[in-house]
Amino acid sequence: MVADPTRKQTPWRLLAWLVFVLVLAVLGYAAQLASDDTPDDIAYRYSSAVAAVIQYGVMLGILLLIARGLPLRDTFALRRPASWGRALGLTAGALGVIWLASAALAPFLNANEEQGLVPDEWDSSRAGAFAAFFVAVTFVAPVVEELTYRGLGFTLLSPYGTWLAIVTTGVLFGAAHGLLVALPVLAVFGIVVGWLRARTDSVYPSMLLHATFNGTALVVSVAVLG
Fold first, then answer.
1. CA 98, CA 146: separation in Å to the nearest integer?
2. pLDDT tens sequence across 41-92
3. 46-66 and 127-135 are packed helices; what angle lies between their axes, rounded to 10 degrees?
4. What global pTM score does this model have?
C-alpha cells in the first residue's frame, strides 16, 4: 500500500508553502519593477547560470524543510507513472495544448519578450556561457519548480480538491515569474502541467514537459537567430 503523506500533514505545512510561493511572487514582481530593462545578453553570462543554480538550491532546501518528516517519495510524487506509454502520450498532448495556447496568445501576451531570457542574437563566441545557461533553464529550473508546485504544493492542496490543487498551483506558478503581461500564458502553462500531474500521479512527466518546453524555446531562438 502506498503511504499517504497527507495523513501526516499539518496546517502549518500548507501555510508555510503558501507563504514561500507568495514570497517568490512578490520578489519576482519587485525585481521586475526595480529593473528598467533586462540585459539583452543574460543568456550569455556565466553569472546568470550560477545565480539560477544558487536560487534553485535555496528553493529546494526550503522545500525539504517544509516537507521534513514526510515520506519524500510520495510527498513530491517521485514515483514512476503506472504506464510510461500513457504518460508520454498525455505529456505530448499537454505540450501541444500549451504550444497552441502560447501561439494563440503570443500576439497579445509575449512571455518570452517580457521575461527577456531568450537572446536577441546568436553569439558563437559565448557558446560556453549559453550552454551553462541552457542547462540551468532546461534541467535545473524545471526539476525544482515542478517539485515546488506539482510536487509539494499539489500534495498539500489535493486534500481540498484535485482541481483546487491544479488551478492554485498553476496560478501561483505563473505569479512566481514576476510578469504582468505574460501571467495568463504562464498560468495556463501551470494549470495544464498540474492536470498532467493529476492524471499521471507522478511529477516526472511534468518535469519532462517543462524541460522540453524550456529547452525547445531556447533552441528555436538560437536556430532562428543563427
1. 16
2. 888 999 999 999 999 999 999 999 999 999 999 999 999 999 999 999 999 9
3. 10
4. 0.91
